[in-house]
Amino acid sequence: MELSSRETLRVLMQRCGNPAEVWVRRSSRNAAKPSSNSRKMRCKCGQCRQCLEDARWERIFAEKFADPTYYTRSVATHMASPLAAL
User: Fold this and answer.
1) Among 11-15, 20-24, 51-55, 80-84, where is mean pLDDT lowest?
2) How far apart are CA 56 and CA 46, in angstroms?
3) Residue ranges of domains in the chain
4) How far apart are CA 44 and CA 53, in angstroms?
């Protein structure tokens, strides 16, 4: 079963060009832009709208999800055969 002719494939491949060249052009075009991995500094004044909203969400998280004993509780590993109950 043939989905397209060899001629159609050849024409499409010629129009696309060399994928390596496309990659070089894209990376050089983006070289002037700052890296998306760079972190943005957040305001820490405690007075502006964003700081107040961040503090609100921190408080909500602490009340609902934070477990104060998470780092202090001991972890007991039960080491027994599952066949011991038989």
Assistant:
1) 20-24
2) 11
3) 41-66
4) 12
pLDDT digit string, tens, across residues 46-82: 899 999 999 999 998 888 887 778 778 777 777 888 8
- Phi, then psi, of 6 in degrees rounded to 5: -65, -35
* Token pair of 2 as six digits: 């043939």
In a 3-state reduction of DSSP, which class is residue 57? helix
Cβ-contact 58, 65 below 8 angstroms: no
By the 10 Å C-beta count (0-12 exposed, 13-18 middle, 19+ buried), 53 is classed as exposed
